[in-house]
Design brief:
single chain, about 10% strand, alpha+beta, guanyl-nucleotide exchange factor activity, Dedicator of cytokinesis protein 2-like
């Protein structure tokens, strides 16, 4: 071959290509892999035949270097076979063949000024080879050392080679971690390694590999019934697509979506699947946002009103679910893995885990320890020392943390329902804290509150939860100390909110058992049970404390204000308790009322009177809970302790409503999962045909210049999006009116059409005349028009103004005259 088929005139590329592939196939066959045999058999083969892999490998190396200027013809085609050969676990063979990679890089660099083809090919092939079982730590170190040494003689390319080696080293480390846990019983470890890989491919802009691991992660979530996380994972793929009829490239396609040919079809298909996952995960807020985006496409782009109607019905069902279906708050757990015995992606790191519904810390910890049977459980919440971190022993630390509600500007000074607020208390959270009591100074055995300081540790995760994982790594930790007075203020604020939250629950649900309300109220009003706030009075409302802490005057006023406000809240709760209590518990209620009367006299005398409107009051429009009214007046967070603490002595009557009006029941047919059915199957059968026809239906007078000016990111920057999509609620500056309304307007009241017509009678007359002029309505005489209009106006005012009726059911004379005048 060297003599007859190497010269340029006689060079046979196919012949040389066949030679290299045949030689590599020979040395990689299973029968020559000596490390798979027993030690005795391996020695016997070596003594009789030698290691033929080494001989053929050296021959391949020599033949490669003889190619000269023809080497460029085999780049990147021969990168995969050469990589497969170098991964054979034979040290001398690796040392002899790894330098071929540098020769390939140098050859491509001389022809093009870079070696991107080689880099792309080796990344692609390395992923498949390592997943197939090849590669180890020794190969990683040899690869790095040999290429760095080879590049030292070429200063122009040395920097680029160093960056390439660092890239491959990082990839190989993550691939080896992934392979190590592929068959692991712990799906959490497999998910962590998968996320590490897809993040790596996102950073280096390898879209095809990124999407490949997205779907591996999606499948792992579905196996674990993590529907919310599966939805966020697919949302990452959908974010790479555009609402356009551009043909999908192979990089963004998956085998299960081969029927979707355009970006629009694929994105629509993905959104439907994601909405289904969010529905199963009870994340209806996220599902509604995607429904609105689809609705805009159906209404404004493809004009498919049948799909639009189904979409709006689905949105309505999600809104109803938010208000009616109970969603248990998940607990969050801080987990630390300390010691050198853990894999690198866990070693000496702390994570915040999102628990499942009703999952207790004990159950979560038991399952966690089962994945690491040799680990020791740490019984303290303090960080470990360096000795424990460097030890070969595995230490696991697990404790419950509290999510911190982030401020949402769209809710500020708006009557947001408690069902919505409660959702945001445990979702879209990135900051968590853990509090533990500490003692400072002398301890009063009769009043521990005077010396109870709180050490609060705050944790910030890499991304918001929930996200593409049920956990994220802690990237920041900080500690603060809360004084006993600040702790008292915070405790009183939480107690008041707890009372009001329970009042709202009992007002909206007549079937709730009375026991929780009884225990809460009695624990506060009866000093024999918990002592109430008397302990705070003895600790802080004394001359000695005021003299020693003059800087706390504002905080003391704040605490007194909270105590004063607790009285009307307790009164409202006791009034509900009186209506709902059974006869057997009537003596208990009498005792509680007696305790409350004494408490009320004392508090109002010392701290003033606070009044709430009668909670049988009603007003037109949407009801607002007492809890939301109180929130507008109270300062809950510690960061606001230094603000003005003056509180009005009376809340406006129209600021809250305890009686919640139940919405009218809608007639619909639902399946066993609660999803609407009926005409839906018929519409779904037509979806495929409609999608096929969309691209062919084009208006003849539509010009390209008339298309809206939409600013799109380049493919590169569009792909380099944030991995965690739980922050995608931010509305872009340049977006449609529908998207701007999609989130912020959820709590805005609407004006019924009848109310609007009364406020603007001229508009009503115009609307009536327009409807009368339609050809579908038969002609009506002028007298009939006046009669019809008078009846309609009477009906309007009857709807808005319902006169009070006496017991006989007839209106009073004054009311009749008012109606006749109208």
């Amino acid at each position: 071959m060297n003599h007859k088929f190497l010269e340029n005139m006689n060079f046979e590329e196919q012949l040389w290509n066949n030679y290299f592939h045949l030689a590599v196939a020979f040395i990689t066959q299973d029968t020559l892999q000596l490390e798979q045999f027993s030690h005795g058999k391996c020695i016997k083969i070596l003594n009789k035949y030698g290691d033929m892999r080494r001989l053929i490998g050296f021959a391949i190396r020599d033949m490669w270097y003889k190619l000269g200027q023809n080497k460029i013809r085999f780049i990147p085609g021969m990168v995969g076979p050469i990589l497969e050969m170098t991964l054979i676990p034979e040290a001398e063979l690796r040392k002899a063949t790894i330098p071929i990679f540098f020769d390939m890089m140098l050859c491509e660099y001389k022809h093009t000024g870079e070696f991107k083809k080689f880099e792309n090919e080796i990344i692609l092939k390395l992923d498949h080879e390592v997943e197939g079982g090849r590669g180890d730590e020794q190969y990683l170190h040899l690869f790095e050392a040999i290429l760095i040494e080879c590049s030292s003689s070429y200063p122009k390319i040395a920097k680029s080679v160093e960056m390439f080696v660092s890239l491959i080293k990082g990839l190989l480390e993550k691939l080896l971690d992934y392979r190590a846990v592929m068959n692991d019983e712990s799906k959490d470890n497999r998910m962590s390694c998968t996320v590490n890989l897809l993040n790596f491919y996102k950073e280096i802009n390898r879209e095809e590999m990124y999407i490949r691991y997205l779907y591996k992660l999606r499948d792992l979530h579905l196996d674990s019934e993590n529907y919310t996380e599966a939805a966020y994972t697919l949302l990452l793929h959908a974010s790479l697509l555009k609402w356009s009829d551009e043909q999908c490239t192979p990089q963004v396609m998956q085998t299960e979506f081969q029927s979707s040919q355009t970006h629009r079809h694929l994105k629509e298909h993905l959104y439907e699947m994601i909405i289904e996952y969010f529905d199963k995960g009870k994340m209806w807020e996220e599902a509604i946002g995607l429904c609105k985006e689809l609705a805009e496409q159906y209404e404004m782009e493809i004009f498919d009103y049948e799909l639009l109607s189904q979409n709006l019905i689905q949105q309505a069902k999600f809104y109803e679910n938010i208000m009616k279906i109970l969603r248990p708050k998940p607990d969050y757990f801080a987990v630390g893995y300390y010691g050198q015995g853990f894999p690198t992606f866990l070693r000496n790191k702390m994570f915040i885990y999102r628990g499942k519904e009703y999952e207790r810390r004990e159950d979560f910890q038991a399952q966690l320890m089962s994945h690491f049977p040799n680990a020791e459980k740490m019984n303290t919440t303090t960080p470990p020392d360096e000795k424990q971190k460097n030890s070969a022993v595995q230490y696991i630390q697990c404790f419950t943390v509290q999510p911190v509600l982030e401020e949402h500007p769209q809710f500020k000074n708006k009557p947001v329902p408690d069902q919505v607020i409660n959702f945001y208390k445990s979702n879209y959270v990135q900051r968590f804290h853990y509090s533990r009591p500490i003692r400072k100074g002398s301890v009063d055995p009769e009043n521990e509150f005077a010396s109870m300081w709180i050490e609060r540790t705050s944790f910030i995760t890499a991304y918001k939860l929930p996200g593409i994982l049920r956990w994220f790594e802690v990237v920041s930790m900080s500690q603060t100390t809360i004084s006993p007075l600040e702790n008292a203020i915070e405790t009183m604020s939480m107690t008041n909110e707890k009372i009001l939250a329970m009042i709202n629950q009992y007002q909206s649900d007549e079937n709730l058992p009375i026991n929780p309300l009884s225990m809460l109220l009695n624990g506060i009003v009866d000093p024999a049970v918990m002592g109430g706030f008397a302990k705070y009075e003895k600790a802080f409302f004394i001359d000695e404390y005021t003299r020693d802490h003059p800087e706390d005057q504002e905080k003391l006023s704040r605490l007194k204000d909270l105590i004063a406000w607790q009285v009307p809240f307790l009164a409202a709760g006791i009034k509900i308790h009186e209506r709902r209590v059974s006869d057997s518990l009537r003596p208990f209620h009498k005792r509680m009322e007696e305790c409350f009367r004494h408490l009320k006299v004392k508090v109002e005398k010392q701290y003033g009177v606070r009044e709430l409107p009668d909670f049988d009051d009603r007003r037109l429009g949407r009801p607002t809970s007492m809890l939301r009214s109180y929130r507008q007046m109270s300062i809950i967070s510690l960061s606001s302790l230094n603000s003005d603490c003056t509180t009005p002595s009376k809340i406006p009557a129209e600021s809250f409503e305890l009686e919640v009006m139940s919405p009218k029941a809608t007639e619909s047919v639902s399946d066993e999962n609660g999803r609407l059915i009926g005409s839906q199957p018929e519409v779904k059968m037509r979806k495929c045909r409609k999608r096929e026809k969309r691209s062919s239906v084009v208006l003849a007078d539509k010009k390209p210049s008339e298309l809206p000016d939409v600013k799109c990111l380049s493919r590169k920057y569009e792909f380099m999006s944030d991995t965690n999509l739980s922050e995608h609620l931010d509305v872009p500056h340049k977006t449609s009116v529908l998207k701007q309304m999609s989130f912020a307007s959820r709590s805005m009241p609407t004006i019924p059409a009848l109310t609007l017509s009364v406020c603007c009678p001229a508009l009503e007359e115009t609307n009536v005349s327009q409807r009368m002029s339609q050809t579908s309505i038969p002609p009506i005489l002028e007298t009939d028009k006046k009669t019809l209009k008078r009846k309609k106006m009477n009906q309007i005012f009857k709807t808005i103004y319902k006169p009070k009726q006496p017991e006989d059911g007839k209106c009073t004379g004054e009311q009749q005259s008012d109606v006749s005048e109208l």
